[in-house]
Amino acid sequence: MAKKMIGIDIGGTEIKFALIDVYGNISKKWKIKTDAADNGNHIPNAIIRAINEEILNGADGTEDIIGIGIGVPGPISQNGELVVKAVNLGWSDMPLKLVIEKELQLPVILLNDANAAALGEMWKGAARGKANLVFVTLGTGVGGGIILNGEVLNGTHSSGGEIGHIPVQSEEQRVCGCGNINCLETYSSATGLLKTMSLLDEKKQLTKDGFTTIDIFDWLKEGNALAEQAVQKTVTHLGFALAGIMNTIDVEEIVVGGGLSEAGDLLLEPLKAVIDRHVFPEIRGNYAVKKAELGNDAGIYGAVYAYLTAQQHPNER
């Protein structure tokens, strides 16, 4: 029987779990609500309890489980033991690895959730067979992960791949949640697109009753000029940023996930057009822009993959 691992993706509203074997086959999935009360201090015990109740105390068999990979919404310390900060959870220097290892007697690997999703797409998703890619997720904010030669580009301060905080030049001033002005995510996230559409539709002809990003892309399909302007502004800022990244690290593929990616070619085709206009000529035509394939499972796959590779190269950690 193949050895198994537990993959965990900690989000602001729910924590997702899966039991996955070394070949990437999922045999069990479950989730719990995220309890961020008391600065998230209840979360580690909730994770331990969920694993005990679903697996360790059940009939799944602990002898086949070799470890745990966890994706978290924030940077990880260089020694891999602490979640340095997770604003949505209220965490600061949370010793998550040590707490869970002590209670469950299983080795644990921590990594940033966007980096986990990038690894997941490389292992089992849109970038299968690739070792160099940029992953960008367009949701409430803009998340990112960069994979070079099959490994996460983590950076000196565990903040590599923070694509959403690349600065944007604009006559507007939009305040980012990080405290800076005009970060990319204030323009190219779902939130940013909604803001742009609202500003363009000054007379509220389209938006008076409230609207969603799905509405914007529906209006785009109908040929609405304001929707076209809103989407173009969104992809222009994102395309500039991604072209800059491409010209710096020259990867094989850009994978786009998150809620906005559900628009498919309505988003990806104009995005690639912008990138093509600004990438180095040797790169143009020699890379792909693809929609992410794994959805909410990407982070779970990636967390498990990170655990697997850490076991194969233990001296590199």
Automatic annotation (TrEMBL):
Which GO molecular function annotations are given, in alphabetical order? ATP binding; glucokinase activity
Put simply, this protein is called Glucokinase
Q: What is its EC number?
A: 2.7.1.2
Species of origin reads: Trichococcus patagoniensis
Against Pfam families, the record matches this protein to: ROK (PF00480)
Coiled-coil segments: none
Gene Ontology CC terms: cytoplasm
Q: Which NCBIfam families match?
A: ROK_glcA_fam
